[in-house]
Each structure stands twice: as C-alpha cells, then as structure tokens.
C-alpha cells in the first residue's frame, strides 16, 4: 500500500486487534493522520462489523466508514503459529490497540503489562465496555446498553419516551478518547523515550460526556430530564413550524440576543425589558408561552425567510435536515469535503477527516478486503514464501 509522505504520523505503525466501532474509529483516524494501521481479523469472516448490513454495494456501511486506509491480515489466534505472527507484528509496532473482552488479550499472551515489559517504548491501548475491574467488568457492552447504563438515554428524546442517540455515541466517545490519548502518548514518548499503557472504557467516556447533567443533578437534586430538541435551561431553544411545513431550529443563548430577537424578529421590542420576558431564567420557566409566541411568528414565514432574517440579526438558527440533505449540503460542497474512496466493490464518496492541516492533503486510503494484505504484511516481516505456505497449511492464516 502506498502512503502519503509529510503526514503527522508518518513512520508510526499501529497493530489493531479490533472489531465493531470504538477501536476501529480510533485507528481509522490514526490512519487518516498517516500511520500504518495493520488490522488483525479472524479468518472466519473477520471483523463482525463486516456483516452488519449490505448497503454499500454489498459491503457494510459501518465497515466502510471505519476501516479505510488500513491493511487487513487474517490470523487465527487460537493457533500457536497465528500468535507467533502477531508477536512479530507487535514487536515492530509503535502502538497496539485491542478491544477484545476484558482479559482476552492477556490470555492470548498480549496483555499490556507483558508487552510493555518486553518493549517499554510500546504504547498499548486497551478498550472495553466498563474497564478492566469493578463489578461490571465482564458485562457485555454494546452501544445502546452503555447509553442506557450511563444515563444518556434518560436525557435523550421527548419527555414521554427515552431514546438512544441516532449515532453510536458511546462507541464514538470511547474511540475519540482512545485517539487523543494515543496522540498524547506519542508526544510524551518523543520526550521520554517511554510508551504508555492506556485504558479506555465506553462507560467512562460516556459518563464524561454527561458532565452537564451530572453537575445539574448534583446541584439541583434532580435530573434535567428529556427535552427533545429543546434545552432544559434555555428559551427560546427549539424547533418551530414554518409556512412551508418545515421546521426551523432557533437558539437564543443569552439576554442580549433575546433583546435583538424580540425587537428584530418578533417585532416586540418591549419584551427586552418586560420582567416576564427579559431574562432567560424567567423565559425558561414560561417556556410554553415563549414557544407559542415564537412559533406564531415563524408560522407566517417560509423556512428560508426565517433563516435569512435571523442571519441578519445574528441569531442562531438551522434547518431540520434529513441525511439526504447532508449528502447534498452546500457547505460540504463549497469546502470540497468529499473524496473518492476505493473499496473492493468500486469507489464510494467519503468525507475528509474533520481535522485539517494547511498544505497537507490527508489520505483517503482504500477499504480493505478481508485478509487482502496478509501476504504483503508477512513479506514485510521477512517471511519467506515457504513459511507463509506453512502457516496457511497449519490454518494460522
């Protein structure tokens, strides 16, 4: 595989014993930044995210999203020969990422402590649902379950019904913390010469993202609850109807904005000083009255008219878009954010990573077929053809 030069992580090799979402998200971003990522997959189907659906011309949308730019090698780690290959790979790596069940990597001989004893420069990243200790250590941990256990679902959705978020928030949270911690460890190693042992749990990552609700509950004695598209502490802050049967999102963050909004949009300048309207604390208590007034005004205008007027006033707004609208969003097009991504079934369009570096085009590497790079990777380790053939004969590949 060809790698673009001049990228931030040029020369960094990552070995990933990973599946599903959290770890693959972290390592895909490492690949986006120029690292060589070698993904270890089971011979009998590989990463099980490959089988989630068949929406991308027969490929799974999750897998296409999370695995571009990686090399796929199949290893049967139940065999001694397969584990020996993984040992050779880790011996030449800078980072080893795994999100097997807690303790599983150690039972295979790839526990963090043992690996770092052999190579103190190695950075190990252990990812799990609840962490390596505690009463929940061995519980199965899927994104929906973590969202519920961490209280996220209790504050998501309308007042009548808790819901999980429409994206795998707990997986993404864990993946992004694994990414940032790995980058910090690489920076630290550049100075000290020593790697690090990093542990990330989906539960703790999600709990961190619940910070506002946690402090609210500590301070008030109760949860802020579910508010749909609204906000428990701000008003007006919600979706409002328009004359063309759309919804427009309006958010007023402070009382200075309210004064502009009242005068310029509602055409009620007296509400800027009226004690029943002037402060956010009062408006939030009278949310239904506030929303009725705002909705009555937006209902006389099209969504584009509302947004144009609010833009002129410097008031925050947005359309309630569908995913199809995002595919065609003018902001993404104007900023040239789409790039072709090769897959085993042809090119698809992918978004550039959200981090950009002036003067550097980040790679949009191909999505690998299962085991596509097995022989290339083994040859890069110095394995001769007869040894590769023997590994195949032993069922290790």
**What does the radius of gyration come to?**
25 Å
Secondary-structure element series: EHEHEHEHHEHHEHHEEHHHHEHHEEHH
Shape: elongated
Oligomer: single chain
Helix content: 25-40%
Task: Walk me through what this model shows.
With 397 residues, the protein is α/β, with parallel strands linked by helices. 39% of the residues lie in helices and 14% in strands. The chain has 17 helices and eleven strands. The strands form three sheets. It has a six-stranded parallel β-sheet, with helices on both faces. It has a three-stranded antiparallel β-sheet with strand order 7-8-9, covered by helices on one side. Helix 1 links the parallel strand 1 (13-17) and strand 2 (36-41). It is elongated.
Key attributes of the depicted protein:
6-stranded parallel β-sheet; alpha/beta; 3-stranded antiparallel β-sheet; elongated; 397 residues; 17 helices
Can I get a quick summary?
This protein is an alpha/beta fold. It is 39% helix and 14% strand. A six-stranded parallel sheet has the order 3-2-1-4-5-6, with helices on both faces. Strands 7-8-9 form a three-stranded antiparallel sheet, covered by helices on one side.
């Amino acid at each position: 595989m060809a790698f673009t030069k001049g990228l931030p992580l040029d020369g960094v090799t990552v070995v990933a014993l990973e599946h599903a979402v959290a770890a693959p998200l972290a390592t895909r971003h490492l690949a986006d930044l120029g690292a060589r990522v070698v993904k270890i997959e089971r011979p009998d189907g590989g990463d099980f995210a490959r089988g989630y659906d068949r929406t991308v011309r027969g490929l799974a949308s999750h897998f296409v999203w999370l695995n571009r730019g990686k090399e796929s090698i199949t290893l049967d780690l139940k065999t001694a020969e397969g584990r020996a290959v993984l040992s050779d790979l880790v011996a030449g790596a800078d980072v080893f990422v795994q999100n097997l069940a807690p303790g599983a990597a150690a039972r295979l001989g790839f526990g963090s402590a043992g690996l770092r004893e052999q190579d103190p420069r190695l950075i190990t990243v252990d990812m799990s649902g609840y962490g390596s200790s505690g009463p929940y250590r061995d519980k199965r941990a899927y994104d929906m379950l973590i969202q519920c256990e961490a209280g996220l679902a209790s504050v998501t959705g309308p007042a009548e019904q808790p819901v999980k978020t429409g994206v795998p928030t707990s997986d993404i949270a864990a993946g992004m913390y694994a990414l940032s911690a790995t980058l910090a460890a690489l920076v630290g190693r550049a100075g000290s010469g020593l790697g690090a042992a990093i542990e990330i749990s989906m539960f703790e990552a999600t709990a961190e993202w619940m910070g506002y609700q946690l402090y609210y509950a500590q301070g008030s004695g109760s949860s802020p609850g579910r508010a749909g598209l609204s906000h428990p502490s701000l008003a007006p802050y919600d979706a409002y109807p328009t004359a063309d049967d759309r919804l427009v999102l309006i958010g007023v963050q402070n009382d200075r904005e309210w004064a502009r909004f009242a005068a310029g949009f509602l055409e009620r300048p007296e509400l800027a000083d009226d004690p029943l309207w002037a402060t956010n604390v009062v408006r939030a208590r009278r949310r239904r009255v506030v929303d009725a007034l705002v909705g009555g005004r937006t209902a006389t205008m099209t969504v584009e008219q509302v947004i144009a007027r609010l833009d002129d006033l410097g008031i925050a707004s947005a359309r309630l878009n569908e995913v199809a609208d995002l595919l065609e969003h003018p902001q993404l097009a104007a900023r040239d954010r789409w790039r072709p991504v090769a897959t085993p079934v042809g090119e698809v369009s992918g978004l550039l990573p959200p981090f950009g570096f002036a003067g550097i085009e980040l790679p949009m590497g191909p999505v690998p077929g299962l085991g596509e790079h097995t022989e290339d990777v083994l040859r890069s380790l110095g394995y001769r053809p007869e040894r590769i053939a023997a590994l195949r004969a032993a069922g290790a590949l």
